[in-house]
Amino acid sequence: MEATRLAEAVRAGELDPVRLTERVLDGIEAADRVVGAFRKVRPEAVAEARELARRSDLARLPLAGVPVAVKDVTEITGEYASSGSAATTTELSTEDSLVVRRLRAAGAVIVGITRVPELCCWPMTDSPDGIARNPWQPAYTAGGSSGGSAAAVAAGLVPVAHGTDGLGSIRLPAAMCGLVGIKPGADLLGEGGWYGMSTHGSLATTVADAALLLGVLAGRPDLARVGGPGRLRVAVSSEVPLTRAPVPKPLRDAVDRVADVLTAAGHAVERATPRYGIEPALGILGRWFAGPAEHADGLDKTLLQPRTRTHVRIGDTLRKARLIRPGTKNRWLARAAEFFGRYDILVTPALATLPPKAARWHERSCLANAIPSIRLAGFAGLWNLAGYPAISVPAARHGHDLPIGVQLVAGPQGEARLLALAAQLEAHNPWPRLPG
Length: 436
Fold this sequence. Notes:
about 425 residues; alpha/beta; Amidase signature (AS) enzymes; eleven-stranded mixed beta sheet; 16 helices; 13 strands; AS_sf; catalytic activity; Amidase
């Protein structure tokens, strides 16, 4: 079930968007009690598909009839965005957000709202109502904070899903669930959260589908036309920023495999690591605490989960001490620009450790959540601080039959280049689309 093919069939009159929507909702009803992808399923989607089928421009819509899941962070008319928290308002939205308006205008049918960890703080997605599990191996987490979106796509419940990424929240679950997950640059789809580090993005099983959805979300249809990458200067590094902790061998091997594929494809590939330094890593750590604290302003903090209350208290302390400073970002930007003056692409592991197990992480302490979170996300967050685009693509598998993703990073306005290189990897190093 690929979005590009579904849309083609609907545009050609070969597939009824109403029946497609009904089939997808039936599939979610049958499978989501195991997967835990959705906070809310939308039966209203059938009526919306019926309205879509009557549109005079149906044959021209890029996402004609495509069922799409939306992360529980953005406004949908008649719904509320909970951000995974009992402390947020349940007042129903009276209008759609910009990205939802663009989805509807493109012909997408929004079938559900996907689960997130509270205030999107963690790379493991669970709540008192359920746990988002990895469809490849349900004993493991689907990741976070776009874990519900990743689980929905990897389980084949929807072909594509919306996500947001503040410190890896699209790329980490994509890597765990065997998906293509792209975080565009902050100048393309920045949504303002977490001190400007968070962006909207897409998750899909194929590069073409990820590009199609990203083009719609960004209002950039040219991004859906994935071309060739040309011959690129590619740097490869498995050195974890700040800690330089040892990276598990399966993750290093996946990067080496991708390096070999890119070399065989004619790219200039060499080992090289950016001058990460300590300051930017500490900067993203501070923003990880302060961003959710800013989100919690005005909320009844007694309704937050205990781990989140502690997280927010730390963030409030950092904010009051004025320790979130723009100079940290500016100095890191100078180093990143220096590096990308020599290279077009950086290839790293997407994860710095193997994925955590699925569990009721929200019942554990802040420290018990923070340690695995920090260890896991070592390669991701610096590119949010820089505002550079980055993508995770499947590359290999390891012992528990879990996918392994690698991260590709490009300089500013590099989304098309990332998608082109990812498509080349997809052709030369293909991956299984869905479990089984």
